[in-house]
Design a protein that fits this description.
Number of helices: 2
Mean pLDDT: 84
Order of helices and strands: HH
Low-confidence stretches: none
Distance between the termini: 32 Å
Number of strands: 0
Shape: elongated
């Protein structure tokens, strides 16, 4: 049961990271299309901070639970 929670949280953070990366790409490559953001550099900084936040959370989960966010099964002791 707890694996489903861990996987769900990992998926949420990974999805938010992908969304922020896409946002950043749009901000940098098509700034003219972003009419409601008067201060483009502030928007880029804010989005970069969000990318950093979610990237860090995804990496932390990988460190704690394995590459997919799932808890790693301990290796059998070598004899």
């Amino acid at each position: 049961m707890k694996e489903k929670y861990i996987q769900g949280i990992y998926n949420e953070y990974a999805g938010l990271l992908d969304q922020r990366r896409a946002d950043l790409e749009v901000l940098v490559s098509m700034p003219v299309g972003i009419g409601d953001h008067g201060n483009l550099s502030a928007e880029i900084k804010k989005t970069l901070e969000e990318v950093d936040k979610y990237s860090s959370l995804v990496e932390t989960m990988k460190t704690l639970f394995g590459s997919t966010g799932q808890p790693e099964t301990p290796a059998a002791p070598e004899e």
